[in-house]
Amino acid sequence: MDRLYDLRRCLYYISFSLSFIGFMLPIYALDVGASVMEVGMLYSVFSLISIIIRPKVGNLLDRRGRKIGLFIGVVLYCLVNFLLLIGRDFKYLFLTRIFQSIGASFLWISVDTMVSDVSYAGNRSENFGSISQAIGRGDFIGCIIGLGIFFSKYFNEPFKVVFTLYFIFSLIALYICIFKIEETLCYKRDIRTKSYIKEGKTTKFILIAGFIFYIFSLVFPLYIIYLKEYITGNLYLIGLVFLPGEAFQLFLPRRFGILADKYDRRKIVILGLFFLGVLQLFVPFIKDYFEFLIIYTLVSLIFMLIDPAASGLVIEYIGDGKRGESYGLYSLAGGVGGTLGPLAGTYYYEHIGGETIFIIGGILLIFVSGIINYSLRKKQSVKYKF
């Protein structure tokens, strides 16, 4: 029995708008008169709200169940699509990011916890990969629809058409959430889960995770801005940058998850961060569109490799007793790093230079890969809880 089938269907439909919003957010914000710092604020307010509520979300999921959190998240994502349908100025973008942050906190912590509920040590990363794959498929189809309509000459108001469709798809996700998905709170803990909590590594894991999220968000909002300012202002070409990565997302995440389950998840994260750092060092020297496309696609592939491995490590280093709280703490670390990163990154971009920030980010990623190897080193013999 595939216990994640309906969850994957729900996430498939709710994910249609994800890449299109990510693609349009910095570009549209600049077009309505926002500064680069204000673009950073749109990313930081997302993370700031999450810092406030994510620990509470984890506790709620452990007390009241996972499905209520999933339901709240899907409802808020429906609201986000509706707000983008009816209004398109900076105030609406700011309000949308607030609701999107709250929705993301409920949705993704609930999803991570539900996946962990039905998984065991031998298939946890594979299950996380299968969820990422379903999200990627919805993301890809939604991106094709959105960009196709946006660049079409047949619609006077392409934004309204796009987000009308996204809103309809999100309502389908809401139906599946209410009537098809089962509660997973009652599932037994996996007695084979490895635990490093007694080794005092929980705090180290949280701090390192927060620092990694900081580095990611330091640079992530700037890729498209860099492409637009240094390489091409053609929105069609900018939109195409997303497509190769989205195409790989259709079939690779589950395979990467299987790889993480078979081999050492920690080493996969370390290698992924190291090579991601090396790639970022090359970005400032790229002024050709197709070279940038290759680098951006490789970055996307490494993110796909790291994600299921990192998600599988959470229970090992934070704990399996209260899964909602564990993923809430992990998301909190992401929220703190994600709040500071965009503000720092956009400040450096404006005052130091768009090229320098990628070098700083690359060096930091290589550095943190070494920190993980040293601080979260496993003992040669690993004991299991029974």
Brief digest:
This protein has 386 residues and is mostly helical.
List the keywords:
386 residues; 78% helix; mainly alpha; Growth Hormone, Chain: A; disordered C terminus
3D structure, described in words:
This protein has 386 residues and is an all-alpha fold. It has a single domain, classed as Growth Hormone, Chain: A (Up-down Bundle), CATH 1.20.1250.20. It has 16 helices and no strands. The protein has helices at 5-14, 18-31, 36-64, 66-86, 90-117, 124-150, 158-179, 202-219, 222-231, 235-240, 242-248, 252-262, 265-282, 289-318, 323-351, 356-375. α8 packs antiparallel against α16 (356-375) and α13 packs antiparallel against α16 (356-375). It is globular and about 50 Å long.
User: CATH topology, anyone?
Assistant: Growth Hormone, Chain: A
What is the terminal separation in angstroms? 26 Å
User: Low-confidence stretches at least 5 residues in length (pLDDT < 50)?
Assistant: 195-199, 379-386
Tally of DSSP helical segments: 16
Portion in beta strands = under 5%
The CATH superfamily bears the name MFS general substrate transporter like domains
| Overall tally of structural domains | 1
**Multimeric organization:** single chain
Structural class: mainly alpha
Radius of gyration: 20 Å
Mean pLDDT metric: 85
Helix content: over 70%
CATH class placement: Mainly Alpha
- Give me the CATH architecture, please: Up-down Bundle
